[in-house]
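From the thread on structure requests for the teaching lab: each student submitted one protein with a one-line request. Submission from student K.M.:

"Model Collagen alpha-2(XI) chain isoform X9 from Acinonyx jubatus, tokens only."
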Amino acid sequence: MERCSRCHRLFLLVPLVLGLSAVPAWAGAPPVDVLRALRFPSLPDGVRRARGICPADVAYRVSRPAQLSAPTRQLFPGGFPKDFSLLTAVRTRPGLQAPLLTLYSAQGVRQLGLELGRPFRFLYEDQTGRPRPPAQPVFRGLSLADGKWHRVAVAVKGQSVTLIVDCKKRVTRPLPRSARPLLDTHGVIIFGARILDEEVFEGDIQELVIVPGVQAAYESCEQKELECEGAWRERPQKQHSHRAQRSPKQQPPRLHRPQNQEPQRQDPTPGGEEGTLEPSPLPPHEEPTGS
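Reply posted by the TA:
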């Protein structure tokens, strides 16, 4: 009788063991910092440092010569997560309609992509070719190509995708993909461009992170100081009347780099100074240039 009881407990454990062995490799995987994986901190050709949303933030200004890509498996060695969050803080050239991120399969199929501008497009195609082009999510009425900073969070879960812009606008669209969708990680991931396409990203980007699960997208607003940009712009006006009372030895606070940041390179542009950050404004309909 005791032996049967032990057998019964063993049979109960079998489904649990099988279930654990079936857990995807990406389950519990850490967030993927796409900018760091594509060597943005080392300032490759076409990339320079710029001011971010907040005074202490460092962003990257991307111009047309930039060619930034890497093997997808290098970023996602355990496979691409089924449900995920994509978080970014970005400011594009006014009027731009261009991709921010594109993921290609080994056969050159565009499996995942974000296209900024008017409208905002989210592209997704799993191993079965779903969803078909007519069912691809389009977020009309939203334009991120206005020359202003925007925080964007994308949450992909099940059969839907939710877009959250500046923590104020939340829109959900159907995403009729397979029940067990897969994205091929034997291809390449490209920033700001598509293969055989002339449209490229031009502007500033501060963050681009992909996180397994959708919780990060919904919690991102609680972790960001969304009002810092407005406070930064208003600060000189409020302090203008107190400048005469400031001690000559007192200096304004310096911008600091984030930890683990690689050394600043010499700015190759005329008049550039080592350690300086690009000014805030983006010139309309021109390639971003330094001051």
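TA comment: The mean pLDDT is 77. Residues 200 and 261 are 26 Å apart (CA to CA).
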